[in-house]
């Protein structure tokens, strides 16, 4: 069991990055931006957090092997872990592809919770998420990525070539991030990825959201080819 952790008020800095204060992340600026579900139905972004606490994870693109493997681990979170509190925690993944790719990506990863897309990247851009990659020696890669770089990229290319609709399913240079917020527009925690491996560990996000249970996401050691 993990103890409750007080909300972090600054983004974690890795390498030579300057931490970002939460006051820089204004959900009021994006609350009316539209996101789309798997059927192409739109709703305002604020609907995802205004009535309760939400963990909102922005991914790069649906062909990215690191995003696929991260979402595969998100899919392993038991529903009762998210609903142990009276109000519960809402888990949301947002991509930046067209909505027609959501169904296939959920099927591929086994992800059972909410997923939407921001195909024009309005929310990504207005919140200040990066559109380039920065790698540092001190940064720790995502513990949820199992594939090495070469093998992972080959898997991504193969999925692109064998998919029913060939497109890149989002901007290949766009980075993602994670936000904990709600109820309302108060941001309790944020992290903007510096590169494709810079995901926040899922257990950390859950604990910051108030979950006291630690889940096992252990994987074999990654061999980078």
UniProtKB/TrEMBL annotation:
Coiled coil: none annotated. Pfam families: AhpC-TSA_2. InterPro entries: PXL2A/B/C, Thioredoxin-like_sf. SUPFAM superfamilies: Thioredoxin-like (SSF52833). This is Peroxiredoxin like 2C. The lineage of its organism: Eukaryota, Metazoa, Chordata, Craniata, Vertebrata.
């Amino acid at each position: 069991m993990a103890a409750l952790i007080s909300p972090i008020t600054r983004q974690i800095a890795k390498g030579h990055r300057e931490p970002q204060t939460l006051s820089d992340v204004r959900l009021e600026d994006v609350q009316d931006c539209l996101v789309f579900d798997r059927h192409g139905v739109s709703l305002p972004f604020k609907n995802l957090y205004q009535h309760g606490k939400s963990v909102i994870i922005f991914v790069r693109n649906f062909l990215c092997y690191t995003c696929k493997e991260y979402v595969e681990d998100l899919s392993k979170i038991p529903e009762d872990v998210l609903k142990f509190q009276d109000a519960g925690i809402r888990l949301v993944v947002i991509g930046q592809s067209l909505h027609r790719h959501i169904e296939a990506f959920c099927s591929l990863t086994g992800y059972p919770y909410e997923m939407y897309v921001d195909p024009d990247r309005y929310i990504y851009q207005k919140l200040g998420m990066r559109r380039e990659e920065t790698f540092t020696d001190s940064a720790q890669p995502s513990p949820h990525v199992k594939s090495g770089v070469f093998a992972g990229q080959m898997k991504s290319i193969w999925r692109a070539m064998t998919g029913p609709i060939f497109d890149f399913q989002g901007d290949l240079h766009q980075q993602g991030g994670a936000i904990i917020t709600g109820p309302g527009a108060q941001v309790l925690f944020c992290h903007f990825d510096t590169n494709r491996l810079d995901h926040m560990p899922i257990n950390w996000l859950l604990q910051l959201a108030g979950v006291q249970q630690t889940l096992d996401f252990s994987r074999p050691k990654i061999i980078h080819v």
